[in-house]
Structure formats: C-alpha cells, structure tokens
C-alpha cells in the first residue's frame, strides 16, 4: 500500500461526550469471546458519520474491532435492532455479498445500557462527499466506480434468501404498502413545529403505491459511504474492489425498486440545484459518474425489468430520507443529543419535501 493510499484509509476520531460508554465493561464482556485479548483496555475512537447507529473502533495493539450500538434518545426500535443487524451480516458471510466478519452480539443491556455487537475491522477507503486529497481519477475510472457500486446492489438483490436463512426477515406481499404507511407514521410521530406537514406527499405515495416487482434482500441504505473500497482506487490497472458493505440496520425482504429509489435519493448530480448540491454526501457529481437515469437504466437492464412509473420510487426514496433526517433532528430538538451537526436538519427535511412536490407535479 502506497503512502497516499495509507492516508486515504477511513479513520475515526475522538469519542463524542454524548456517545461515550463504559469501556471496561465492554472489555470484560469481549474477553469472553476473544481469549487472546490483553489485560489492557482498548483504545476507543468513534467514526464521525454515526448519525443513526453509532460506530466505534476498538484497538488492541495490532488487532482492531468495530462496535455498533444504537443512539441515545428518540428512535424507531426496528431501525436500531442490533441483534437483527448482526444476524443479517452473519448469514451473509456464506454468500457473495461482502460483509465484515461478526465477532459477538451482546443482548445484555446492563453492559453499556443498550444492545450492541462487535465485528472485525475492515481496513479500506470510504468515499464521502469528495475523493480524498491527491486522488485523481479519469472519467472512465469514475464510471467504472459507479458501475461497480450498482453491480454490488444487484448482487445483494440476487441473494438466495431461502438458502441463506434470510427469508424470515420478510412479511410477504404488501411490502410497498407497509413501507409507505410505516414511514408516514414515523414522520408524523417525529414531526416538529418547523417542518412542513408532508401530508400531500404521503397521500400521493399512498394513492400511487404499486405492487412489488419482486421480493428479495434489500439493504435499505445503500450509498458510497457504506462501502469499504480497496484503496488502490487510482490504479487503473486494478479492478475496483468493494471489500465490505456496511450498515445493515434497515435491511429486510422487499421490493428491489424501492431499494434503488432509496439509493438514488443520495445520488446528487453536478447540475442539480444549489441546495441539493450542498446536501451531497458522496462524489456522484464527478464527471464520468452515471446519472440517476443511467443508473436506473443499467439496473433494469441487468434485472430484465421495465419501469414505467419511476417517479413513485424517486419520491419514496426522498421522502424516506426526509423522515430519517427528521427522526435525527427530533433528538436534537428535544435535547436528547447535543451533536451540533443535527442542528439544521429541519432545513434538509423541508427541502426534501419540496423536492418531492416538484417531482410529483412533473409526473402529472
């Protein structure tokens, strides 16, 4: 690995005061599963992106683990079920989907006040708003990167849920209706005075809800910052390798087009409006990157399906993202967290609802 690649590796920082936990308690618990651990407590750091479930790195000398736990404060229980997220990834270890190796699950809330799990640390590059400093890619390589990401989403949707034991995640027919009803209810429950009512969008989604095109494993939050890449990204002679797919908290059995709609909510173009560009959290603005329209076409070509009503899935993805942002803002608004990055999430919620309105009007 070159010195540049070493610098591009995803690195955690200091633990936020609001998110600290009893390290000695976790250490004592973890030693029951890892006999080779030393007596000394691990060095604990936190990954900054933890707006939903929180993610920490535990370092024992040359060996590192990752701990995942839910946040403190208002939350939807189904979105923070540690046992469920752990078991999904454990089941996927026997498939072609790249996931970190699971170490142990703690369902005893007395250890740190919540359920949590520990997994192996996967070293690699995680892309966020921009490429890392010094990383220059050709337009052909950027296109290859975006295609690799979509092919991994296709691989998730191709998992044999019967043989993997994941079929039990599903509730059968009616997934799309349950999603619309569920996210609408969560928005209403988390609403604060400073956001739009969202009723027109919720009503439109309910009135235009299609039946499922298929039932398969869906990730629920598929985007570049949930992909761990081999750091040889700038080496055109090497294939782009996705080492692990992270954050399976929203995974279930559902409609793959709903999952694609979720992914496209994060896919911001260079020519989108100024606010949406400011909302960008992945480098989908780069020259050579597939557009949202090209992603949908590529996906449908490989799935062998046709979509005549993409506006529904696009609006659904944006609305669901608005609800997630609102649930996070609710915690800040009610002083359940002091994390300043959540202070203006209500503005993002209003923008996303406005964007839904615009798409709906254009679809008529």
Blueprint of the fold:
Elements: H1 3-8, H2 23-30, E1 43-46, E2 54-60, E3 63-69, H3 82-92, E4 102-106, E5 116-120, H4 139-157, H5 161-164, H6 175-190, H7 199-207, E6 216-218, E7 227-229, E8 242-245, E9 252-254, H8 256-264, H9 274-278, H10 292-303, H11 310-333, H12 345-363
Antiparallel strand pairs: 1-2, 2-3, 3-5, 4-5, 6-9, 7-8
Helix pairs in contact: 4-10, 6-11, 8-11, 11-12
Write up this protein:
The protein is α+β, with helices and mostly antiparallel strands. It folds into 2 domains: 3-120, Phosphorylase Kinase, domain 1 (2-Layer Sandwich); 139-363, Aminoglycoside 3'-phosphotransferase, Chain: A, domain 2 (Alpha-Beta Complex). The chain has 12 helices and 9 strands. The chain has helices at 3-8, 23-30, 82-92, 139-157, 161-164, 175-190, 199-207, 256-264, 274-278, 292-303, 310-333, 345-363, and strands spanning 43-46, 54-60, 63-69, 102-106, 116-120, 216-218, 227-229, 242-245, 252-254. The strands form 3 sheets. Strands 1-2-3-5-4 form a 5-stranded antiparallel β-sheet, sandwiched between helices. Helix 8 (256-264) packs across helix 11 (310-333) and helix 11 (310-333) packs antiparallel against helix 12 (345-363). The longest helix has 24 residues, at 310-333.
